[in-house]
Amino acid sequence: MQPRDLSDHVAYKAGRGIEEVARELGRDPSEFVKLASNENPHGPSPAAAVAIREHASSTSSYPKAAHADLVAAIADRWAVEDEQIWLANGGDGAIDYLHRATIEPGDAVLVPTPGFAYYGMSSRFHHGEVREYPLERTNDFEQTADRVLDSYDGERIVWITSPHNPTGTTMSVDEIERVAVETDDETLVVVDEAYGEFADLDSAVSLLQGRGTDDGRDDVAVLRTFSKAYGLAGIRLGYAIVPEEWGDAYARVNTPFAASELACRAGLAALQDDEHVERTVRTARNSREYLRDRIDADVWPSEGNFVLVDVGEATPVAEALQDRGVIVRDCSSFGLPGCLRITCGTEAETERAVEALNAVLAGRDEESETATEVPDT
Fold this sequence. Notes:
Layout lengths: L17 H8 L7 E3 L10 H10 L8 H15 L6 E4 L1 H13 L5 E6 L3 H9 L3 E6 L10 H5 L7 E5 L11 H10 L5 E5 L12 H4 L11 E6 L12 E4 L8 H4 L7 H11 L2 H21 L3 E2 L6 E5 L3 H10 L2 E5 L8 E5 L3 H26 L5
Parallel strand pairs: 1-11, 3-4, 3-5, 5-6, 6-7
Antiparallel strand pairs: 2-8, 7-8, 9-10, 10-12, 11-12
Helix pairs in contact: 2-10, 3-10, 4-5, 11-13
C-alpha cells in the first residue's frame, strides 16, 4: 500500500539549526549564531517561561479552561468577540483551519511569489489548486491591490503577507480593503501578520472591527502568532481572527484541543508581557537599520525582524558564512537564488553577521578580479 499521489507537493525547508550545522562541520555548537529562522534573539517571554514551569504539573488534563482564558484575552486585546478567535498549533495550524473551512475540491487559492510555501502546501493537502501573483524584484517587491487583482481569477482565498516573508514589504489596510471590495463575495482575503508587531503599520484586524462602524467585513481574516515577538516558536501557538459569521465553524474544523495546556498558559502570560515585546521590537528595528547601513551589498527596507540581502549567488555565500559561524537563510527555496535573509539578532550577533558577510563578499570580489585579469604578454 502507498500514500496518495504527492508528486505535486513540495517539502517545507526550514532554516538550519545550530546543532545540525555543528554536527555536519564537526564543530562545537557554541561557535555559531543562528540568524536563519526569524526567532526571537532574547528568547521566550520571561513571564511565559514562569507560566510553563508553574503549570507543568497540570499537563495531565486537557486544556479546556486554559484555552477559554487565552481566547478571551486575545479577543479583548483586539476588541473582537471570543468566537472570532481560532487558536491553533502555530500559524500553520490556523492556515489549515481556514482551508478546511473554505476549500472544496477543485477550488483555488491565490498566493504571493516569492512567499511562504505552506500556503500552497496546505491548499494541496485539502485538494485545492494553487495560483500565484508575483511580487516583482524590479519594483522592490512592492505590495499593492493592483498587483493582486491583476492575477485574481475568482480564487476562494487570497493570501496577503504583511509584513511579507522574505522581503519585509507591507500592504496598507486601505489596499487590503480594496482587494476585499474588488474580489468576489465568496472570496476570503487572509492577511498573515506573523511579523505584525515589528511593523509601523495598522493591523488589518481593523477591517473586522468595522473601522469605527458597527459592522466588520465578512470576507477578511487575519493570522497572528506567538512565535516571533513573544519568543514562543517552540511552543507552536498561533491564531486566526475571523469574521463574526465564521465563529461556529471552528468547532467543526479544528482538532480537539488545538493548543496544549502549556502553550495556552504560556501565551496568556506572554500576552501581558509588554516589556518583552517592546524590547524585542526595539532590538529588531535597531538591528535591521544596522544591517542596511553596514552591509556592503543591496539590502531592501524591511518591516519584519529580518532583512533581505542581494549577494549575487546565495548558496556559496551562505556556505561561506556558515564556515565563519553565522547561519543565515539561503533564499533559493523562495525562488530568490541571489538573496540571503538575515534575522535581526542582538547587537553582538548583528555586528558579527555584518563583519562576516562583508568579509565573504570582499573575498569573492577579489577572486572575481583575479579571475578576470588579463595576463601580461
